[in-house]
Amino acid sequence: MQLSSVAAQPRVEFGPLHVMDLGQIAYAEAVLLQDQLVEERLNDVIPDTLLLLEHPPVITLGRRASMADVHVSAAELAALGIDVQHATRGGLVTYHGPGQVIGYPIVKLRPRRLSVPCYVRALEQAIVAALAEIGVAAHIDAQHVGVWTATQGKIAAIGVAQRHGVTLHGLAVNLQPDLAHFSLINACGIGDLGVTSVAAVLGRPVDADDFKRRLARSLQACLAASACATAEL
Question: Would you give per-residue pLDDT tens digits along the chain (233 residues)?
Fold first, then answer.
């Protein structure tokens, strides 16, 4: 994890996303890194930045979540090697683990003329576009945040927060995670609607590094040209 190259960037109000691929990193460590980068972005020390990564198995509880949405005991989770962490993002409970591509954009919203709802929609649009490039048809559901397949359930989750107009947390796309782990929770409060993965849809694993590149390009484009960007915030 190299921060020096980011910190060395000139002061920038609005420009292309700087992408950092962190590989696998513990959830708590990623939170601390986001806190640092949010402060740096707030003070224009760094440009808008996208962290791409993977977490070891962890269940995270958003601001509206409770352990009532976790179907097994803490002891059972420990035996499975699954951590539990409280998160400052919006939303309920979700699972992260190997086989997901996770993106945490650290983005200053005002220069891009984005409200938080417009920003969330841009994330959804970026995921849909990146999935389409690898042959997965997915869509946005106006009733439920995230990205969905027509018949197999949710394929990507979104949970964001913002601090003084700078975003943190973000998105998780299920490439080939252990889908059985989602049965341990009421995912996002709508677990009955089902959860799927790219591998389940295509019937084969996919190249995570290739998808990261596609997602980063798509996210850059969608943040720059959000259809719901507002003239004034």
Answer: 444 334 444 444 556 899 999 999 999 999 999 999 999 999 999 999 999 999 999 988 877 766 778 888 888 888 999 988 888 787 788 899 999 999 999 999 999 999 999 999 999 999 999 999 999 999 999 888 899 999 889 999 999 999 999 999 999 999 999 999 988 887 755 657 789 999 999 999 999 999 999 999 999 999 987 656 543 33
Catalytic one among 118, 188, 222, 228? 188
Total domains in the chain come to 1
What is the C-alpha to C-alpha distance for residues 27 and 54, in angstroms, rounded to an integer?
9
In a domain, 59, yes or no: yes
What is the pTM for the complete model shown?
Answer: 0.87
Looking up residue 136, the CATH number of its domain turns out to be 3.30.930.10
Contact 53, 25 (CB under 8 A): yes
222 as an active site residue: the answer is no
Q: CB-hemisphere CA count at 13 Å for 78?
A: 3
